[in-house]
Amino acid sequence: MMDVGLLIIRLVVGLTFMGHGAQKLFGWFGGYGIKGTGSWFESIGMKPGVTMALLAGLAEFIGGALFAVGLFTWIAGLLLALTMLVAIVKVHQANGFWVTQNGFEYNFVLLAVAIGVALIGPGQYAMDALF
């Protein structure tokens, strides 16, 4: 049953990250695309904004895809954890913990899940289990 639980966690979290990456990269799901996200990144001091938006979008999209299928899971977990750490420090930390005040609660949970799965492994129902 633990392997099924890990599969569910990986799919939900990985696909969610892919969606966030697609917002940054392609403007899908109500996102602003590379240029819009890049402009926002510039406004919060992350320069060059377009490059940072590209890197964040790729980390979320590719990291999320790898996490979801359980391939190179520790690398995917690291990519996702680093992305959440940057989001916490650069965007949410000043607002406190609770997401209702735009705090880092959500990012902190995703950070913990990414690290936790990277450390314990993706489970039996993962591409990593084939190798």
UniProtKB/TrEMBL annotation:
Record flagged with keyword Transmembrane helix:
yes
According to the lineage, what is the superkingdom? Bacteria
Looking at the keywords, is Transferase present?
no
InterPro entries given for it?
DoxX, DoxX-like_oxidoreductase
The UniProt entry lists the main location of this chain as: membrane
Membrane topology, as annotated, equals: Multi-pass membrane protein
The record's listing under Pfam families reads: DoxX
Subcellular localization: Cell membrane
**Sorted alphabetically, which keywords does the UniProt record give?**
Cell membrane, Membrane, Transmembrane, Transmembrane helix
Transmembrane region positions? 61-88, 108-127
Assigned protein family: Belongs to the DoxX family.
PANTHER family, A to Z: OXIDOREDUCTASE CATD-RELATED, OXIDOREDUCTASE MHQP-RELATED
Please identify the protein, giving its name as recorded: DoxX family protein
Species of provenance: Anoxybacteroides rupiense
